[in-house]
Amino acid sequence: MIVLGLDAAGVGCGAAVRRDGKVAAARTEAMAQGHAVRLMPLVLEVLAEAGVAPGDIDLFGVTTGPGSFTGLRVGLAAVGGLALGAGRKIVGIPSFDAVLADLGPVAAGSILVALDGRRAEPFARQFDASGNPLGEPLCLPAVELAALIPAGPLTVAGDGVPLLLPALAGRADVHHAGQSAIDPATVAWLAEERADQAREGPPPPLYVRPPDAVPLAERAPKP
Question: Is the pLDDT score of 220 beyond 80?
Answer without folding.
Answer: no
